[in-house]
Specification:
Pfam families: Response_reg, Trans_reg_C. Helix content is 39%, strand content 23%. With 235 residues, the chain is of the alpha/beta class.
């Protein structure tokens, strides 16, 4: 079996760590585990995981604090584990740059599917042209670098979280077209969402905050009432 990963699991539940380690290793993943977030940044720096699975509720340094620390240094995809019904943790996690979330308890098979989906999206975001040149998307005076996962606005090159990067990529690719929330969720997350899930709005807000310091781009992302959002490529 082809080796995958590595995957870093950070959770204070020893039984869950052992279960996920055994399950993911059966599918060819190299798995590392931590019982707390205290050594998270050092471990990510050492093993360069393909994805981090991070529990929110942990003693000492909780998952949201760990996520904030990781996002300050790394672009690694992060899947958050939240308590069932804790919408606040989910929303805050998305605001801090989490790429996906799962509510406990969950089926390890679903986590495996989420890991595969996150890795597919992350790899697609870093694609390059066949001639070895860097592939970019340009619209409205902005340049999205698909290799570096950065946005060029004026003279600045802005680092981006993975989810906001994929969302802006979809919007810029369809510049001038209104896209529904459902369409954006399908393209960005590659899975069905509840009709009442407003996760996309959180990420749109973060993109607008990213562009706000640039007056010529501050209104690039337009709300189309009753439909969704549109990237405006004209002045």
């Amino acid at each position: 079996m082809e080796m995958q990963g590595p995957v870093l699991i950070i959770d204070d539940d020893a039984k869950l760590r052992e279960l996920l380690l055994e399950y993911l290793e059966e599918y060819g993943y190299t798995v590392h585990t931590l019982p707390s977030g205290m050594e998270a940044a050092r471990t990510v720096r050492e093993i360069s995981p393909a994805v981090v699975v991070l529990d929110v509720m942990m003693p000492g340094k909780d998952g949201l604090e760990v996520l904030r620390e990781l996002r300050g240094e790394f672009a690694v995809p992060v899947i958050m584990l939240t308590a069932k019904g804790e919408d606040t943790d989910r929303i805050v996690g998305l605001e801090l740059g989490a790429d996906d979330y799962m509510a406990k308890p969950f089926n390890p098979r679903e986590l495996l599917a989420r890991i595969k989906a996150v890795l597919r999206r992350f790899e697609a975001g870093g694609s390059t042209e066949g001639n070895g040149g860097v592939k970019t998307i340009q619209a409205g005076g902005l340049t999205l670098n698909l290799s570096r996962q950065t946005l060029r606005a004026g003279a600045d090159e802005l680092e981006m979280a993975a989810t906001e990067f994929r969302l802006l990529k979809v919007l810029m690719t369809h510049a001038g077209r209104a896209l529904t929330r459902d369409a954006l969720m399908d393209k960005v997350w590659d899975r069905d969402f509840s009709a009442y899930d407003r996760s996309i709005d959180v990420h749109i807000s973060k993109l607008r905050s990213l562009l706000k310091p640039y007056p010529e781009h501050a209104k690039r992302i337009k709300t189309v009432w009753g439909t969704g959002y549109m990237f405006v490529d004209e002045p």
